[in-house]
Amino acid sequence: MEFTHWKRRLQDHFEQMGFDLRIERLAMQDILKLEATHGAFLFFPITIHLYERMGWQMIAIESHHPAEVDDLFAEAQVQSLFQMTMMTFEEEERELILGFYSNTGRYLTDPASPTGQLVRVIEEEWNEGDALRIQTFEPFPGLFVAPSFAHQTYAFAADGDKWQVLVGRTGRPASDYRFDGTVLTPHRVPEGELFTRIPIAVPLEQYEEMRKQLQLEQTEISTFLEQAMRTIREYDPSFGFAWRGTVTFFHGVPVNPFAQRLWLENGQKRFRIMQQGSSRILAIGETSAEAIHLLDQAVGAGEPEGTPVSAIGQFILGIWKQFESDEATYMTDVDCDGISQQQVENRIRHSLARREPIEWLTQTQNSNDVCQFAGLTFTFPHRPPGIVHIKRADDVSSS
């Protein structure tokens, strides 16, 4: 199998620099693997993989430094080696070469090259100035970026005289981020992710235009999330306060929704808000304004069939994760000890509005659960239906 010209030339260049190379051609993957050592430049052996991905000529470097060598020192050595190589490696495709250090996932570039300037813009706009690192399980990726604010992975590719922006088709799992965009768990791009191009393409040298496009992407997504959060809070001031601590309730339903701004394969945008537990779409539109309008209609529509859910039902049904508004089906009786049911209702409403957390005292699989909320102690079966017992918490004075 023939290997592309640049790989052979780079191999020759390493040999001219005095590297001792053991060469292996991985024909099935179209990868050239170099086991390299150099007495003057490196204190440890490295493995170099040369391959092509999405228009990039990629150099993946893995160091095999001993345990007593500091990881940061090893990374700094590899980065210096890469920059020295690029400064002395003269070929017409030089600006398309991108490297990364496999041990830490950090991208390697010649800062003076167009590639280096592109990476710098991405780091400044989407990564808060921190070094960009590979965010994928794939061993031989291209320039993949999974910004914390977005719901899809981005890829940047050289296409002729332009930088082409692409997005991953799988999207980000709903469990990876909060409704307001805050990341809950680290996001990693799946291996073999497929990318589709979107209508963002910027000439190679116009880095300020690329910066502007990146800013627009982030602003559009964050504005959509803010508008959705604000819309729901108009109806339920407690919404969004209890993420991962308790459950957020709305209309008697435990609300764990996610909002996404997605690019589709046809280059169109899709704005949607979904209820994660039931995968029910609350609102979806081709524009942010359309989706927010539909969300306002959905959350402002009132209870189904006009049947209100009590504050007690809102609280207990939420814990049980029941999505019906007929609370009598699940709460067979409510027993209030030493306090009226109306007082209980008022306390629950006020505590939800104040965004107080639930304090769990007992949680079991086959018996009763016990928790404290709003200065009250609640005892109820772990699974519905059943009787809910409510009394004042011992350390809370009567109201």
Q: Major β-sheet, in short?
A: 6 strands, mixed
Please state the average pLDDT score: 84
Strand content: 25-35%
Alpha carbon gyration radius: 28 Å
Task: State the helicity in percent bands.
Answer: 25-40%
Give the CATH class of the domain at 1-106: Alpha Beta
Structural class: alpha+beta
Q: So, CATH architecture of the domain at 1-106?
A: 2-Layer Sandwich
The separation of the N and C termini measures 83 Å
What is the CATH topology of the domain at 1-106? TATA-Binding Protein
Strand arrangement within the widest β-sheet reads 1-2-3-4-5-6
What's the overall geometry? elongated
By DSSP (H or I, 4+ residues per run), the number of helices equals 7
Number of strands: 20
Q: Return residue spans where pLDDT drops below 50 for at least 5 consecutive residues.
A: 242-247, 395-399
The helix/strand order is HEEEEHEEHEEEEHEEEEEHHEHEEEE
Verbal overview:
The protein has 399 residues and is α+β, with helices and mostly antiparallel strands. Among the domains are: 1-106, 2-Layer Sandwich (TATA-Binding Protein), CATH 3.30.310; 221-304; 305-392, no CATH class. Helix content is 27%, strand content 30%. The protein contains 7 helices and 20 strands. The strands form 5 sheets. It has a 6-stranded mixed beta sheet. Strands 16-20-19-18-17 form a 5-stranded mixed beta sheet, with helices on one face. It is elongated.
Q: What are the defining features of this structure?
A:
399 residues, alpha+beta, TATA-Binding Protein, six-stranded mixed β-sheet, five-stranded mixed β-sheet
Write the layout of secondary structure elements.
Layout: H1 5-16, E1 20-26, E2 31-37, E3 46-53, E4 56-63, H2 71-88, E5 97-101, E6 106-108, H3 114-126, E7 143-145, E8 154-159, E9 162-168, E10 195-203, H4 207-235, E11 248-250, E12 253-255, E13 257-263, E14 269-275, E15 280-285, H5 288-299, H6 311-320, E16 331-337, H7 341-353, E17 359-362, E18 368-373, E19 376-381, E20 386-392
Parallel strand pairs: 4-5, 16-20
Antiparallel strand pairs: 1-2, 2-3, 3-4, 5-6, 7-8, 8-9, 9-10, 11-12, 13-14, 14-15, 17-18, 18-19, 19-20
